[in-house]
Specification:
Layout lengths: L8 E11 L16 E8 L10 E2 L2 E3 L8 H5 L23 H4 L11 H17 L4 E3 L3 H5 L13 H13 L3 H8 L2 E3 L5 E7 L11 E10 L12 E7 L1 H9 L7 H10 L5 H12 L5 E2 L2 E4 L4 E4 L20 E2 L4 H7 L4 E7 L2 E6 L13 H6 L5 E2 L1
Helix pairs in contact: 7-8
Bound molecules: 2-acetamido-2-deoxy-beta-D-glucopyranose.
Length: about 375
């Protein structure tokens, strides 16, 4: 864990998608229909961070995610680069700090690229009861599997529930559990997808996170259970269903979720999304700190690459939380040759404008118009 960080805490999140079970009687799906769903959890109204928001499972990295005890468990893999996850092609100097940080210097033999994946697996177990592990004895075989399954046959339900409450109590118990059940967190199924830094709060002080986003594809939708404390509700929906509920003001999602659901929408088939996420993840990713701009008629959340994105963004939040502008959205759009921004008209009315070529072989979010017509290159969602 990086205790030197003053302004934010390190966290990991999984965009967990799973194939839909089809009944044999089901009619042939429409060509533009998704054949997978994504897991979203509704945070409790009492939660300290984004109450009532629908979020992907995830949470804070703990010291136990970096524990040397993982070395023994991962024994056959520990000598491979990143325990067999592999190395990204991205040059170290452009790598997001959370991945570039030398963890050995911070006293942990577990690389960040491994520890944040362990964190993502642990948090998914804590929050949703979905255990993304593989049996230790044939981990090598599982590692190369194209689309993995979630494991529930390691122990019975009551045993699983017991472990889950122990892990929620103390994250170190996740190591004990893996040792006892002879399993390993499936770090190899976690494909690096992005890195979002919580922007400076528009409404005073809020918790800020430096969050690694992974994408994990499962063959089938697994059982999910709820954690009453932080999460009150969970839902498996297609990306277009979530975006429609958001537009219809039935659910609220934060801008990163909005943006990433739009990016996933480029793929209607689970196998295509999986192949893309897996091959793209070796390219690496950029750290994104959204910078708020208050226009006269809306809020604009600027992302790196946008013409208006500051050359030296204020990471610490010492200055004002939002850059003021005397201009309207229309004027701001006209003045910017390069668009990479999320425009927030109100809490539920959001659009992404992207005309830059995304770095690291990523894709821009698909527009809602394109979701129907598949023809629009200018990504307005
Ligand atoms: C969690 O468990 C570890 C190892 O058993 C122990 O060292 C640590 O103090 C525990 N933490 C809490 C908050 O109980």
């Amino acid at each position: 864990m990086n205790t030197a960080l003053k302004h934010w805490k390190e966290a990991a999140t999984v965009i967990l998608v799973a194939g839909m079970k089809r009944s044999p009687a089901a009619s042939v799906p429409h060509k533009s229909a998704f054949n997978y769903k994504v897991l979203l959890l509704k945070r409790s109204g009492k939660s300290g961070f984004m109450p009532n928001a629908h979020v992907f499972p995830g949470g804070l990295a703990e010291a136990s995610d970096f524990s040397p005890e993982w070395l023994d468990l991962f024994e056959p893999f520990r000598t491979l680069p990143n325990f067999g996850v592999g190395l990204v092609k991205q040059p170290p100097e452009t790598r997001p700090p959370m991945f570039a940080t030398d963890r050995l210097k911070l006293g942990s033999p577990v690389p960040g690229d491994v520890a944040f994946r362990i964190c993502a697996v642990r948090e998914t177990f804590e929050e949703a009861g979905v255990l993304l592990v593989v049996p230790r004895k044939d981990a090598a075989e599982h590692r190369s599997r194209s689309v993995p399954a979630a494991l529930s046959e390691l122990c019975d339900r009551s045993e699983m529930a017991r472990w889950r409450s122990l892990v929620i109590q103390n994250s170190s118990n996740f190591i004990h559990m893996c040792r006892e059940l002879q399993c390993l967190p499936n770090i190899w199924a976690m494909h690096e997808w992005g890195n979002w830094l919580t922007p400076i709060g528009l409404h005073g002080k809020q918790r800020r996170y430096d969050t690694a986003f992974y994408l994990c594809c499962l063959k089938d939708i697994p059982d999910t259970v709820q954690d009453e404390k932080e999460i009150v509700h969970f839902e498996w929906s297609t990306p277009s269903e979530v975006l429609r509920s958001f537009r219809d003001r039935e659910v609220w999602i934060a801008p990163p979720q909005f943006y990433d659901l739009g990016r996933m929408s480029n793929f209607h088939l689970l196998s295509d999304l999986h192949d893309f996420a897996k091959s793209r993840s070796v390219e690496g990713c950029e750290q994104w700190l959204p910078v708020h701009l208050a226009a006269t008629d809306c809020h604009v959340s600027l992302l790196p690459g946008d013409s208006m994105y500051p050359e030296t963004p204020d990471y610490t939040g010492k200055t004002k939380s939002s850059l003021p502008s005397e201009k309207s959205l229309e004027e701001l759009q006209k003045e910017s040759p390069n668009l990479h921004r999320i425009v927030i008209h109100d809490l539920y009315t959001t659009s992404a404008y992207v005309n830059i070529t995304p770095k690291y072989r990523h894709l821009p979010p698909l527009t809602s118009a394109a979701l129907n017509s598949q023809s629009n290159h200018d990504s307005k969602l």
